[in-house]
Write a structure and sequence with these properties.
- With 673 residues, this protein is of the alpha/beta class.
- It folds into five domains: 1-39 and 154-166, no CATH class; 44-140, OB fold (Dihydrolipoamide Acetyltransferase, E2P) (Beta Barrel), CATH 2.40.50.140; 171-233 and 635-673, no CATH class; 244-430, Rossmann fold (3-Layer(aba) Sandwich); 441-601 and 609-615, P-loop containing nucleotide triphosphate hydrolases (Rossmann fold, 3-Layer(aba) Sandwich), CATH 3.40.50.
- Helices cover 39% and strands 19% of the residues.
- A hairpin with a 2-residue loop joins strand 6 (109-120) and strand 7 (123-132).
- Bound molecules: adenosine-5'-diphosphate and magnesium ion.
- Adenosine-5'-diphosphate is lined by residues 256-259, 262, 285, 287-293, 410, 434, 539.
Length: 673
C-alpha cells in the first residue's frame, strides 16, 4: 500500500461516506492527509470543579449516574443525567438528542464529556456534550477541527486520519534544502503529522505556516517558470507601432466619452503591442465598466496592421452579443465572423478555410473556436472575455503562436490573489464607471413582512414597464435538481406571487437555441420576469431590467452576488437588488449587509477573501484555479516571501534539474496565466 492508494480499499467505512469523500475531492490516502483542519481546540480534561470555567466548551471527566430519558411537552426526546467530579461536586447534564452511547450504558460509568458548561437556574449544567467512555484521539490534548460536510464530521475524520498518519513519511520534500534551513521550516512529514495531531498550538501554527508557504511557493514557481521560459524563447511577432492620431480619431467616433480608466487601459495595451515580448495582460473591471470597447479599440489597431483578432466569450449568448456590437464597431471593410457550436458544419468549414487564408480579420466565438483544425493565418491578438470561465488548455493554445493575449475579467481580484495566481500577467484595472450610472440600491430581505413589501415593490416596477431578473441558486451540482429548482420557483412566482404578470424561466440544461430564444424575447420585452439559475450568463445586456432578486443569497460569495447585480443598472434608471435570505442566520445576514453598503467589486472581493476564502470569489470549481488547502491568501507577507524564493530558485536554475522533487510537483500541476 502506498500514499496514492484509494481510500475505498484502505478505510473501513460505508459507501455513503466514500461517495461524500469523493465529492469533497478526497479519494486517496494522500488526499485525506492533505485535507487539513481549519482550527484546533483544547480538550484538556478537568476533573475538579475548581478547574472548570463557566461559559466555555471544555472536557470534564467524572462518574455518570441517574441517566433518565424524558419526553418534553413538545414531544421531543431528551436525556438527563448527573456527573460527579473527583471532588464530589455534581453537574447536571442534558442532551437534546439522545446519544447513541447512552442507550446501553451502565450506571456509574466513568465518562468524558465535551461541551459547554454554564449556570442554569442556579445549577451548573453541561449541555449537549459529546460523550466518550475511554481516553481516545478526541480528548486529553489538542484536537483538530475539520471543515465538515455530513456525514463526514470532524470526529470521523480525526479517527480515520489518525489511522493514516503512518503514511506521512511517504510525502516527498519539495522545498529546497536551503529554504527549509533559512526559514527554519519543519520537514514535510512532520508538518503533515503536526497539523493533524499537534503537540501544542505553537507547533500547529508553524506547521500550517510552512504548508501554506509550500502551497504558494509551488504555484509561484509554476507560474513564474512559464514566464521565464516563455520570455526566453518568444519575441513580439506582431509588433504594431502606436499611431496616436489614428487612436484619437477612433475614440472620437464613439458615441460616448471614454473614462480615464478606459483610456489608461487602452494605452497600456497599445504600449504592449510595441514591446519586444508578446503581451499577457489581464484587464479587470466591474461589470459595466466598459471592458469590451477597450478590447475592440485595441483589436481595431491590430487588425489595421493586417493581423487577425480573435475574441472569445464563454457562452454562445455572449459571443452573439459581442458579434452584434462588433459588426457595428469595425469598419465594413474588415471581415467579422461568428464561430460557435451552433454554426452548421458546412459554414464552420467555410469559416475555417477563410481564417487560414487570412480572409477573416476578426473572429468572435466560443470554445468551438478551439478545435485543432482552427488555424489562423496570423493571429495577432486573442481577447478572452471572462477568462476564469475558460479551461487552462484553451488559454494555452492561444498563447502558443506568440499572439498577444488580453484576458478580461469582471471578477475583481485582490492584489494578494493576483500576485499568486497571475504572477506572470500584467494587470490593468478599470476602476471607474462610465459617467451617469446610478448605483444600485441593494436590500437584504430576511423575513416575511419584508418579502411582502418587496413583492409589492416589484409589481409596481412591472407596472412602470420595467423587467425583473430572478435568480435561484443551484442546490446541487447535478443538473436534474437545477432544472427542478428553477421550475419549482417559476411555478411559485408565476402562480402564487405574480399571477397577472408574464413569467418565463431559463436553466443551463436547455438547448442553446431555446436559451437564445428566451433571452431574445426578454430583451424585446415579451415578458416581465425571467427566472433562471445562477449559471446563466452574467454579461448579457437587458437595459430595461431594473430589478434583480436573488433567492438563497446566503449561498453565494459576495463577488458572485456583485456579478449578478451587474446585470441590472445598465442605463440611467434607478435599479434595485433584493437579496433573499433562505434561513434565519444572523452571521449570513451580517455578511450580506456589505452588499447594501458597497457597490465596489474590489472591496467586496476582499471581504469575501477574508471571510470565505478563494473558492468563493470565483464560485467554485469551474474557476480552473486550485483549491488552496491551507495558505491564507490575505497574508501578503507570506505571499511575498514565497514569491521572492520562487524567483530566486528560478534565476539560479530555471530547468529545476537540481530540484527533482520540486520539478515533479510543478510539472504535475496546471499552468495558470
Ligand atoms: P463590461 O465591462 O461589463 O464588459 P461592457 O463593455 O459590456 O461592460 O459595457 C457596458 C455598457 O456600457 C455597454 O453598453 C457599453 O457600450 C457602455 N459603455 C462602455 N464604455 C462607456 C463609456 N465610457 N461611457 C458610456 N457608456 C459606455
Ligand atoms: Mg463584458
Amino acid at each position: 500500500m502506498n500514499i496514492d492508494f484509494p481510500l475505498s480499499q484502505t478505510l473501513k467505512t460505508t459507501k455513503t461516506h466514500l461517495a461524500k469523500l469523493e465529492r469533497m475531492g478526497i479519494s486517496t490516502i494522500r488526499d485525506a492527509l492533505e485535507f487539513f483542519p481549519r482550527a484546533i481546540e483544547s480538550t484538556e480534561i478537568s476533573s475538579d470543579f475548581r478547574h472548570i470555567q463557566l461559559g466555555v466548551k471544555q472536557t470534564v471527566s467524572g462518574i455518570l449516574t441517574d441517566v433518565r430519558k424524558e419526553t418534553t411537552t413538545r414531544g421531543k426526546k431528551i436525556a438527563r443525567a448527573a456527573l460527579t467530579l473527583n471532588d464530589g461536586s455534581v453537574l447536571d447534564v442534558i442532551w437534546f438528542q439522545i446519544p447513541y452511547l447512552l442507550r446501553n450504558m451502565r450506571d456509574e460509568s466513568r465518562v468524558f464529556l465535551v461541551g459547554k458548561i454554564d449556570r442554569n437556574y442556579g445549577k451548573i449544567q453541561v449541555s449537549n456534550p459529546e460523550i466518550h467512555l475511554d481516553r481516545n484521539v478526541h480528548i486529553g490534548a489538542l484536537r483538530a477541527i475539520y471543515p465538515e460536510s455530513p456525514p463526514i464530521t470532524s470526529k470521523w475524520l480525526r479517527e480515520k486520519i489518525t489511522g493514516l498518519l503512518v503514511f506521512v513519511k511517504e510525502f516527498s520534500e519539495i522545498l529546497p534544502h536551503k529554504i527549509l534551513q533559512s526559514e527554519k521550516f519543519m520537514g514535510k512529514a512532520e508538518a503533515i503529522h503536526t497539523i493533524h495531531r499537534p503537540k501544542d498550538s505553537e507547533s500547529w501554527y508553524q506547521a500550517r505556516h510552512r504548508l501554506g508557504f509550500e502551497e504558494i511557493f509551488s504555484i509561484q514557481v509554476r507560474v513564474m517558470r512559464e514566464k521565464f521560459l516563455r520570455e526566453k524563447k518568444t519575441q513580439n511577432k506582431y509588433l504594431v507601432a502606436m499611431n496616436t492620431d489614428q487612436v484619437k480619431a477612433d475614440i472620437e467616433k464613439l458615441p460616448f466619452e471614454l473614462t480615464t480608466a478606459q483610456k489608461k487601459c487602452l494605452y497600456q495595451v497599445l504600449k504592449d503591442f510595441e514591446a519586444d515580448k508578446p503581451m499577457h495582460r489581464l484587464m479587470q473591471g466591474d461589470v459595466g465598466s466598459g471592458k469590451t470597447i477597450v478590447a475592440f479599440l485595441a483589436g481595431l489597431h491590430m487588425a489595421r496592421s493586417r493581423s487577425q483578432v480573435a475574441i472569445l466569450a464563454p457562452t454562445e449568448i455572449l459571443a452573439k452579443q459581442h458579434f452584434a456590437n462588433a459588426l457595428k464597431f469595425f469598419p465594413s471593410t474588415m471581415r467579422v465572423e461568428l464561430l460557435t457550436g451552433s454554426v452548421t458544419a458546412k459554414n464552420k468549414q467555410n469559416i475555417k478555410n477563410k481564417l487560414a487564408h487570412g480572409d477573416i480579420q476578426i473572429l468572435i466565438g466560443t470554445h468551438a473556436l478551439f478545435t485543432e483544425d482552427t488555424v489562423f493565418k496570423n493571429l495577432g491578438l486573442a481577447v478572452i472575455d471572462e477568462q476564469h470561465r475558460f479551461g487552462v488548455q484553451q488559454r494555452a493554445i492561444l498563447a502558443q503562436n506568440n499572439s498577444h493575449v488580453l484576458a478580461m475579467t469582471a471578477t475583481p481580484i485582490p492584489r494578494t490573489l493576483a500576485l499568486t495566481m497571475y504572477g506572470d500577467q500584467d494587470i490593468s484595472v478599470i476602476d471607474e464607471m462610465p459617467a451617469g450610472r446610478k448605483s444600485i440600491i441593494t436590500r437584504v430581505v430576511h423575513d416575511e413582512k419584508a418579502s411582502t413589501l418587496c413583492y409589492r415593490f416589484i409589481d409596481d416596477q412591472i407596472e412602470k414597464g420595467r423587467q425583473i431578473f430572478w435568480v435561484c441558486p443551484l442546490i446541487d451540482e447535478s443538473d436534474k435538481i437545477e432544472a427542478k429548482n428553477v421550475k419549482h420557483e417559476f411555478e411559485r412566482i408565476n402562480n402564487e406571487l405574480f399571477p397577472k404578470r408574464r413569467v418565463e424561466f431559463l436553466h443551463g440544461k436547455m438547448k442553446a437555441k431555446e436559451k437564445d430564444a428566451i433571452m431574445r424575447r426578454f430583451r424585446d420585452h415579451e415578458f416581465d420576469i425571467l427566472v433562471s439559475t445562477s449559471v446563466i450568463e452574467v454579461g448579457v445586456d437587458i437595459p430595461n431590467a431594473t430589478v434583480m432578486v436573488i433567492e438563497n443569497s446566503e449561498r453565494f460569495g459576495l463577488s458572485q452576488l456583485h456579478q449578478f447585480r451587474g446585470r441590472i443598472g445598465r442605463n440611467d434608471m434607478q435599479s434595485y437588488c433584493f437579496l433573499m435570505v433562505g434561513k434565519k442566520d444572523d452571521a449570513q445576514k451580517q455578511r450580506l449587509r456589505a452588499m447594501e453598503k458597497s457597490n465596489n467589486g474590489m472591496y467586496l472581493a476582499e471581504v469575501d477573501l477574508k471571510l470565505r476564502g478563494m473558492g468563493e470569489i470565483y464560485g467554485t470549481r469551474q474557476s480552473g484555479l486550485p483549491d488552496l488547502k491551507c495558505a491564507d491568501l490575505t497574508n501578503l507577507e507570506l505571499l511575498q516571501k514565497a514569491r521572492d524564493w520562487a524567483i530566486s530558485i528560478l534565476k539560479e536554475d530555471v530547468t529545476l534539474e537540481s530540484y527533482p522533487a520540486l520539478k515533479r510537483e510543478v510539472e504535475r500541476g496546471e499552468v495558470y496565466f
